[in-house]
């Protein structure tokens, strides 16, 4: 029976408790076997040389040396899964002008107008534009509802199956929507709406699954940096989608959908056959529950603990806990939706993400239109310039995640970034009619808005899904991620209508004021857990002082 794994020369890390020799899992022992093998039997262990001191990791060459090639493969597969999904989403935004022209009589020669009248969808471009906006809202609401459902499903089924089904199914729907209907000259409003509702539901299966897989492979140590770098997948997908669409748009918008859907379907097939959802699948010890993982999120104070507390150890991809493991059946049990919703920190961070995702997605949907209408720049120039917002988001998510790892806390980093985000929004609302200066201010805005958005949707969601309050349940990552991102998507869906309404009634300056209010609301929600914890600590401190005074009074009458 394989009960150990090689730790260092002559030293073995116990991976399975051995009651016969009173050796617990997670302890270091000296092995009498001279063959330094990866396998070791109980007879090879010397129980009298059991190390009682806390286990410390051996010297490492660097931060990344704790990860194996399996971690790299998982990182890349999940990263590019969402890159492909977001590139297809961006494609629809980039070809709206071409679709609108195709759905109106102006897209045809006037000689063929009577023939076209029988198949047209809208009488003018304004009607087509309104319908495209309605499709955005339909997609976001169905996506939000699907996130609540798919998160629960992902914690109960194999994450690889759910993820590959979402990728391949969404690719098929996009092919039907943008390519097949154009090839067959079949245009129907209800058919388009039905497909886009289905597309939102299928795409909602991807994000909770990829975050859950990443959470299974990467522990709390370094999670801010790893997830900050990894969460750039959405911005990279936006850039890739814009590039693919612009490359083939001259042949027709249907080919833009064809390219992205084929690539996305191929990615789903690769995920189905190549993704490892847990370290257990290759014999590695899985990441355990992060003890007090909510503290770095909700507190700006140093963590305090008993020396008997569990201590996470990682060695070249092997993770263990110094206390005996809990029942495996308990670990595999998934928690319910409402249990996950009531976990500490889930509600405030979900509401915070709803406010922040509203602002982030408003830039995603409206930025090219704002640049074109407000500054009079060509559509191609506005599309190229809008990329700088994504560039700022990529850098912001990575840098802020790294800082949060260095500090051991995420709340202070979020608070400072959101405070500076208000200033960047004020600055960008007064940006000059100069593309270089505008791009620079836009990148700064993306840094302070996209960075916190990436952190909440990835690293913080993973932290919330692996906190002590789970009481041993390991199957909450996808559910918690679905709740956080689903609530954020509801805010984003409502925000698109509000942005168009405010802009039409009061102008773009009031839109930026609305963004500032949303960012400040996000700050309030993220500060809520910190304030609650500080209030409880003050209450406990006052109670402790009263007890000390009472004890002193009784001993000194």
From TrEMBL:
Origin superkingdom: Eukaryota
Annotated GO biological processes are: xenobiotic transmembrane transport
Q: Where do the TM regions start and end?
A: 67-85, 128-149, 161-183, 189-213, 225-249, 255-276, 346-367, 387-404, 411-428, 440-464, 476-499, 511-532
Annotated Major facilitator superfamily (MFS) profile domain residues: 74-539
Show the Pfam families listed in the entry. Answer: MFS_1 (PF07690)
- Which keywords accompany this UniProt record? Endoplasmic reticulum, Glycoprotein, Lysosome, Membrane, Sugar transport, Transmembrane, Transmembrane helix, Transport
InterPro entries (UniProt xref): MFS, MFS_dom, MFS_trans_sf, Sugar_P_transporter
In its UniProt record, a GO molecular function of this protein is: xenobiotic transmembrane transporter activity
Location in or out of the cell: Endoplasmic reticulum membrane; Lysosome membrane
Coiled coil regions in record? none
GO CC, any one term: endoplasmic reticulum membrane
Q: Which CDD domains match?
A: MFS_SLC37A3 (cd17342)
Q: Per its UniProt record, what Gene3D superfamilies does this chain match? A: MFS general substrate transporter like domains (1.20.1250.20)
- Family according to the record: Belongs to the major facilitator superfamily. Organophosphate:Pi antiporter (OPA) (TC 2.A.1.4) family.
Which PANTHER family does the entry mention?
MAJOR FACILITATOR SUPERFAMILY TRANSPORTER 16, ISOFORM B (PTHR43184), SUGAR PHOSPHATE EXCHANGER 3 (PTHR43184:SF12)
Protein known as: Sugar phosphate exchanger 3
């Amino acid at each position: 029976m394989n009960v150990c794994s090689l730790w260092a020369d002559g030293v073995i890390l116990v991976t399975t408790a051995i009651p016969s020799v009173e050796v617990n899992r997670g302890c270091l022992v000296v092995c009498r076997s001279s063959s330094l093998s990866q396998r070791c039997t109980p007879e090879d262990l010397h129980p009298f040389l059991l190390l009682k001191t806390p286990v410390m990791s051996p010297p490492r060459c660097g931060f990344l040396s704790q990860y194996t090639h399996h971690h790299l493969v998982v990182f890349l597969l999940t990263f590019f899964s969402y890159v492909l999904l977001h590139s297809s989403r961006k494609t629809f935004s980039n070809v709206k002008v071409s679709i609108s022209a195709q759905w109106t009589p102006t897209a045809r020669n006037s000689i063929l107008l009577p023939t076209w009248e029988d198949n047209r969808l809208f009488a003018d471009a304004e009607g087509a534009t309104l319908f495209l906006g309605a499709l955005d809202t339909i997609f976001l609401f169905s996506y939000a509802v699907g996130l609540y459902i798919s998160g629960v499903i992902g914690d109960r089924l194999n994450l690889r199956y759910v993820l590959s089904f979402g990728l391949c199914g969404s690719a098929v729907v996009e092919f039907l929507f943008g390519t097949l209907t154009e090839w067959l000259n079949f245009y129907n409003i209800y058919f388009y709406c039905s497909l886009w509702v289905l597309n939102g539901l299928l795409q909602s299966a991807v994000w909770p699954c990829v975050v859950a897989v990443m959470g299974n492979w990467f522990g709390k140590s370094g999670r801010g940096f790893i997830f900050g770098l990894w969460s750039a997948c959405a911005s990279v997908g936006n850039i890739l989608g814009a590039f693919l669409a612009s490359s083939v748009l001259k042949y027709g918008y249907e080919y833009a959908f064809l390219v992205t859907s084929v690539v996305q379907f191929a990615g789903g097939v690769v995920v189905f056959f190549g993704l490892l959802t847990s370290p257990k699948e290759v014999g590695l010890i899985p990441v355990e529950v992060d003890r007090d993982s909510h503290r770095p999120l909700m507190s700006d104070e140093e963590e305090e603990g008993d020396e008997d507390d569990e201590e996470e150890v990682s060695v070249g991809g092997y993770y263990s806990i110094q206390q005996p493991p809990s029942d495996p059946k308990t670990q595999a049990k998934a928690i319910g939706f409402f249990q996950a919703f009531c976990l500490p920190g889930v509600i405030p961070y979900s509401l915070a993400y709803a406010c922040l995702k509203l602002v982030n997605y408003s830039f995603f949907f409206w930025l090219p239109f704002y640049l074109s209408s407000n500054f009079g720049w060509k559509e191609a120039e506005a599309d190229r310039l809008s990329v700088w917002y994504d560039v700022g988001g990529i850098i912001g998510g990575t840098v802020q995640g790294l800082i949060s790892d260095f500090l051991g806390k995420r709340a202070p980093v979020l608070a400072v970034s959101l405070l500076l985000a208000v200033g960047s929004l004020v600055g960008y609302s007064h940006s000059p009619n100069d593309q270089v200066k505008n791009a620079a201010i836009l990148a700064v805005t993306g840094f302070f808005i996209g960075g916190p958005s990436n952190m909440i949707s990835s690293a913080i969601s993973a932290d919330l899904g692996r906190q002590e309050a789970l009481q041993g349940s390991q199957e909450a990552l996808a559910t918690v991620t679905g709740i956080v991102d689903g609530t954020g998507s509801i805010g984003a869906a409502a925000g698109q209508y509000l942005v168009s309404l405010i802009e039409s009634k009061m102008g773009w300056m009031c839109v930026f004021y609305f963004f500032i209010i949303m960012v400040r609301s996000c700050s309030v929600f993220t500060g809520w857990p910190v304030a609650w914890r500080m209030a409880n600590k003050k209450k406990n401190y006052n109670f402790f002082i009263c007890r000390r005074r009472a004890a002193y009074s009784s001993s000194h009458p």
